[in-house]
């Protein structure tokens, strides 16, 4: 029988192995220590209880309860599985809309950030269709995140032809820089731009909105996002529990910080369902 104590002790051990040392790792360890004597059998509800406690430090911690799971706990860190190219192509790399509104506004909706090598043709096609538009609305309200390289690709369409450093991702061993790609002269879009966000904007979806906002390249409209700025790995803690364990954090090059805990705070706060209409009105003012 796997208990809550078993799960939280193993999670704390993996945090020591993966998460950069510092106050946040110590704080997360202290949160998990509250469950050190909890011998209740682990359930989906108790996993959610541990998650909510951990979210006070890292909004990205997740405990996925799999009642029929039989695989043994991991002893070595694993990576995220590669995406199925056919599945990515079938959903057009999560580019769910690219159209021109009646008033000349280009509306691009991207609901995820698939691996950049698969996503680039669809992303580039969507932004190419925005050429000649009156203005641009980028809808990230359902964007649950994904590949930071795809964040850089999209940001590059809006931040200019020359490469721009967006961030550093800091783990236990290194600091990895993320830059937008160089573009041909005149290749970037210079349209007035709004970005729509909400509670469904998460992780690297938040990163894209945050980086554009920090560089004053777009007005952000909608609801405050959840605030998940860590990078995580999938680690099996028990046959029935798969965790998302923080392994790195993001530092925006412009602000020196990130959106962890605070979320991306819109310039114009409105209900997510009203964000498109509010953005169009604001762009007319």
Brief sketch in words of this structure:
The chain has 285 residues and is an alpha/beta fold.
Helix-strand category: alpha/beta
Number of domains: 2
Radius of gyration: 20 Å
Major sheet: size, sense and barrel closure? 6 strands, mixed
Specify the helix fraction band: 25-40%
Termini separation (Å)? 62 Å
Tally of contiguous helical segments: 8
Protein name: Tail specific protease domain-containing protein
Organism: Dactylosporangium siamense
Pfam families: Peptidase_S41
GO biological process, one term: proteolysis
Question: Can you walk me through this structure?
Answer:
One of its GO terms (molecular function) is serine-type peptidase activity. The chain is an alpha/beta fold and 285 residues long. It folds into 2 domains: 98 residues; 160 residues, 2-enoyl-CoA Hydratase, Chain A, domain 1. Helices cover 31% and strands 22% of the residues. It is built from 8 helices and 11 strands. The strands form 2 sheets. A 6-stranded mixed sheet has the order 2-3-4-7-8-11, with helices on both faces. A hairpin with a 4-residue loop joins strand 5 and strand 6. Helix 1 runs antiparallel to helix 2, helix 5 runs parallel beside helix 6 and helix 6 runs parallel beside helix 7. The longest helix has 15 residues. The model has no long low-confidence stretch (mean pLDDT 96).
């Amino acid at each position: 029988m796997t208990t809550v104590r078993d799960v939280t002790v193993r999670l704390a051990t993996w945090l020591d192995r993966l998460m950069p040392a510092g106050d946040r790792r110590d704080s997360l360890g202290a949160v998990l220590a509250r469950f050190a004597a909890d011998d209740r059998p682990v359930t989906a509800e108790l996993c959610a209880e541990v998650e909510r406690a951990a979210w006070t430090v890292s909004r990205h911690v997740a405990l996925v309860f799999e009642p029929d799971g039989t695989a043994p706990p991991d002893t070595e860190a694993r990576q995220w599985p590669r995406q199925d190219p056919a599945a990515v192509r079938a959903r057009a790399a999560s580019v769910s809309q690219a159209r021109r509104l009646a008033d000349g506004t280009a509306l691009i909706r991207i609901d995820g950030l698939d691996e950049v090598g698969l996503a680039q043709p669809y992303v580039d096609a969507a932004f190419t269709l925005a050429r000649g538009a009156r203005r641009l609305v980028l809808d990230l309200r359902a964007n649950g995140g994904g590949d930071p390289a795809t964040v850089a690709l999209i940001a590059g369409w809006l931040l200019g032809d020359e490469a721009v450093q967006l961030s550093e991702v800091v783990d236990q061993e290194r600091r990895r820089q993320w830059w937008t790609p160089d573009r041909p002269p005149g290749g970037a879009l210079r349209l007035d731009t709004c970005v729509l966000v909400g509670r469904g904007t998460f992780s690297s979806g938040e990163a894209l909105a945050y980086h554009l906002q920090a560089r004053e390249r777009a007005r952000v409209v909608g609801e405050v996002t959840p605030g998940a700025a860590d990078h995580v790995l999938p680690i099996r803690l028990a046959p029935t529990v798969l965790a998302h364990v923080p392994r790195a954090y993001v530092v925006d090059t412009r602000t020196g910080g990130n959106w962890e805990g605070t979320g991306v705070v819109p310039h114009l706060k409105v209900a997510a369902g009203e964000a498109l209409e509010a953005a169009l009105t604001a762009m007319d003012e």
